[in-house]
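Worked Example 4.2. Read the sequence first, then its C-alpha cells.
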Amino acid sequence: MADEFIIRTEGLTKEFKGFIAVNNVNLNVRRGSIHALIGPNGAGKTTCFNLITKFLTPTRGQILYNGADITRDKPYEIALKGLVRSFQISATFPHLTVLENVRIALQRKLGTSFHFWKSDRTVEVLDERALELIEQVGLSAFVDREAVELSYGRKRALEIATTIALDPEMLLLDEPMAGMGREDVLRISQLIRKVAKGRTVLMIEHNLSVVADLSDVITVLARGEILAEGPYAVVSKHPDVVDAYMGTGHG
C-alpha cells in the first residue's frame, strides 16, 4: 500500500561551519495535498527545499520519497522519479516560442530534448499534448510568441507548463508569487490549484493570503526548526507564530 506521506524527512539537519540552518526537521507531506512552508527570513525554508531537491546534502537525517531513501540521490535522479522543482529546473528558453518551449520539455520526458536535427515531423507529434498544456495554463493566445516577450506572470505560467510536461508526481514551487502584481497572483493561484489535482505540491510562499487560500497544511519554520504545523486557521493563531512574524516581519 502506498505511504500516506509522499515526502518524509527524519531528523533533517544542515550545518554551515557551525551555523545550524535546519535543525532536526521532521516534515511529513501528505500525498495529494498542497503543503506550504512558511517562516520569517532566515527560518531555513530555502535550505530545507535545497535539501529535499538534493541541491544540498544534509549533515544528518534522512529524506524518504514514496517510502524510498533519497538522501544521497542526485537532483536529476529525483527528477526522474517524479519530484520536480519548478522555476529552477524548468527555466525557459527566451528566444523560443511558447510552443517550442513546451515541446522541448515533452521531448526531455522522452529523452530526446536535444535532437534538434530531427525533422519537424518527428516533433510535431508532440504538438497536440503541448497545445493542451498551453491551454491549461492560459497561454493559447501566445503560442507563437517568444518567451522573452511575455509578461512576468505569463512567463511563470509557461514555466509551470514546462514543468508539468515532465509529468511530475510531486511539484515543489519556490516562491511562485515573488515579484507579481495582484492580477498575476490571482492567475497563478488558480493555475496552481488546477495543476495540483492528482499531484502533491510543496511550496515556499511569502504571500500569506495565497497560503491561506491554497494550502491544506502549513509548516512554520523559525530558526531552522518547526514552530507549528496544521491548517492556516489554527497555525495563524498560534502564539509562537504570531510572535515570530510580529518580531521579525514575514520576508
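Now turn to a second chain, presented in exactly the same format:
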Amino acid sequence: MVFTNWPATMKNNAYIVFGFLALVWGMTFLFNKTASTLITPTQIATVRVFMGFLPVLAVAVIGRKLKWRHLRYAHHFIAMSVLAGSLYYFSFAKGIQLLPSSLAGMLSGAIPMISFVTAAIFLRDEPINRRSMLGLMFGFAGVAMIARPWDASISAHDLAGFGYVGLGSLCVGLSFVYARKFLSPLGISPLALCTYQLGIASLTLLVTTDFTGATAIFDNGWIALGLFFGLGLFGTGIAYLCYYYVVEKLGAVKAASATYIPPIIAVLTGSLILGETVRLLDLVAMAAIMTGVVVMQSGRPRKANRNSIPSRSPELCPATNR
C-alpha cells in the first residue's frame, strides 16, 4: 500500500516545495531591503551570490556533475556569470535600495515578459500572436502605471531605481537567450551550469567589491541572518535546488508559475513589516502585470510551451530572477 501511494506522495511533496519556493523568492525583497540600510548593494550581491553558491556546489560535487572537460566552455560560463550573476544581482540590489521593496517586487513580475521579448528578437522562435501581444500590452501598461514617467512628482531617485530594476530584468532576459543559443546544445547538467555561473560570479564579486564598512551588517543580528541565510543560502542556493525538484516532479511550465506569487509576497512584507505605503493604483498595476504574463503565456501553442523558454529556464540557475 505504501509503494502504491508513492507517486502521489511525491507529487504532494513537490507542491509543498513549490509553496516554499514561492515564499522564499518573495521574501528576498524584504531581506535585500533591510540589508541595504546597513551595507552597499555590491556587498549585498557578493554575500548573496557566495552563500547561494555553497549549497549548489556541495550538491554538484556529491552528484559528480562537474567535469574537467567543461573548462573548454569557460567563456560561456563567464558570460552567464555576468548576465545572470554579478550584474543581475547588483542591479536588483541597487534598485531595491532606491525603491520600496514592494514596488521592486511588483516590477519583477514583468521579467517573463522581458524574457519573451528578448527571445522573440534574438531567437525568433517564440510564437507572436494576438494573445501574446495583448498580454504584453497589459503587462507593460502595468509597469508604466508603477513607474509613471509622465508624473513630474517622480524623483530622479525613483527613476534611477526603476532603471536598475529594468537593467536587472533585461540581464535575465538576455541570459535566457544566451543559455538557449550557446549552453543548451552542450548537454551539460543544469546543476553544473549553475555551479559554474555562481562560482565565477562569486569570485568576480569577491575580488572587485569594496568591503569597507561591511561589518555594519552585524550591528543587527536579524538583518544579518536575513542576508546570509534568507537572501543568500535559502533565497538563492537552496531555492535553485528546490526549483529543479519541482521541475522534475511537476514539469517546467508548472514550476515557472511560481514566479506569479513572489510579487504578492513582496507587497505584503513591504507593507506589513516595513510599513511601506502601497497605493491602490500600484495594486491595479501589479494585477495588470500578472494578467499580462498569464495571457501572454497562454498564447503559446502547446508545442511552443514545451520547447520555449519558461519564465525560469531549466538551462540556467533559476534563482537569478529574484
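Notes for the reader: The CA atoms of residues 243 and 255 lie 7 Å apart. Confidence is low (pLDDT under 50) at residues 1-6, 304-315.
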